[in-house]
Amino acid sequence: MRALPYCKLSFSAPPSLSSTLDLHPVRWALVLLLLAAATAVGLLIDPYVSLTSQAMLYVLAVEVASYRLGRLEAAICAVGSVAALNFFFVPPRWTFAVDQREHLIALAVMLLVAFMTSRLAAGLQREARAARLSESLALAARSEAQRQELISTFLASISHDLRTPLATILGAASSLQAQRDRLSPEQQSSMLASIETEARYLTALTENTLQLARLSDPMVELHRDWESVEEIVGAALARVRPQDPGRRIGSRVPAGLPLLRVDPVLLGQLLVNLLDNALKYSEGGIEIHAAPVPGGVDLCVSDRGLGIPAAQRESVFRPYSRGDRSGQRGAGLGLAVCRAIALAHGGTLAVETREGGGCRLRLSLPVEPHQPVEEPS
């Protein structure tokens, strides 16, 4: 007869009651507090109510323990309630003895009711947890569906917006390479300008796409620093000057504005996007001006274009949404990125109608109450 192979089994002992009690001292203190409160109230109203009413106080204590504490705590509270009712109120009082069968039956029924209440409460807690879990899963599923829809929309939009400028650049570069000797200087300059324009468009599209993806992360960290409004506006104007040969953009930044604790790269991109939109979708003068407001600073970009209809003043901030009537191309990312940058800084970005025509994009940024102190030179 072949011997069975030896195997070693190990069993871990379940945690003792004392170790369980040590894990939740606050819960057990609450159990004692509930029993003490029920007893104190019962003693106060003892001359005016019957034993049944006093028993209901302990049932209430068990109810509270069942809904707010664990099953073990609720069970101990139920046993403690029966013991306290017997000791303090059931004749003969101040002893655990019971001299009447009716009182003994009442105590047994009360203990049974308390345990049933505890069990029902535990079931309700499980159902509530299951409902919260289902809600979380449904929310996650909706978020994933929205993400997939956003990706599909992004791919559909970005493929078109990338294909056109890339084809233009490739065609112009191929013509310059193959037919340089047969092209006049004016034609060559035109093709080079076309390549530069399309490359700038691709650069802006890439920057907006990357920033929108980055700012979509709720855990994104901004690289904040103390910046002056004048420097932020000046840097944005310097970036858009090549697109503004006619010097259509004017600026007004009063002296003495408080410093802003912002991410200068992101805020610069926000202003560049607003100014670039104003250059593309309007004619005539464009103004960027800053003004102090209670608790913050407003930066406004104003133009005299066709404006934005009231029904589209929120939809223009959604990604890939384009509501302009100018015929200008675009991926519909610029204003979405601007809104995301404003929100990441705790600010707002809104569209306003200008008196006399055009629109105004108002960026409102909060100001830190404690400004840095300049060191004496």
Task: Please characterize this protein's 3D structure.
The longest helix has 79 residues, at 101-179. α3 packs antiparallel against α4 (71-88). With 377 residues, the protein is of the alpha+beta class. The chain is elongated and about 120 Å long. It has helices at 17-23, 25-44, 51-68, 71-88, 101-179, 185-215, 229-240, 264-281, 334-344, and strands at residues 225-227, 249-252, 260-262, 286-293, 296-302, 348-353, 359-366. It contains 9 helices and 7 strands; from the N terminus they run ααααααβαββαββαββ. The strands form 2 sheets. A 5-stranded mixed beta sheet has the order 2-4-5-7-6. A two-stranded antiparallel ribbon has the order 1-3. The chain is 57% helix and 10% strand. The protein has 2 domains: 23-183, no CATH class; 225-366, 2-Layer Sandwich (Heat Shock Protein 90). Mean pLDDT is 80; it is low at 1-23.
Sum up the structure in keywords:
2 domains, 377 residues, elongated, Heat Shock Protein 90, 5-stranded mixed sheet
Could you give the topology of this structure?
Elements: H1 17-23, H2 25-44, H3 51-68, H4 71-88, H5 101-179, H6 185-215, E1 225-227, H7 229-240, E2 249-252, E3 260-262, H8 264-281, E4 286-293, E5 296-302, H9 334-344, E6 348-353, E7 359-366
Parallel strand pairs: 2-4
Antiparallel strand pairs: 1-3, 4-5, 5-7, 6-7
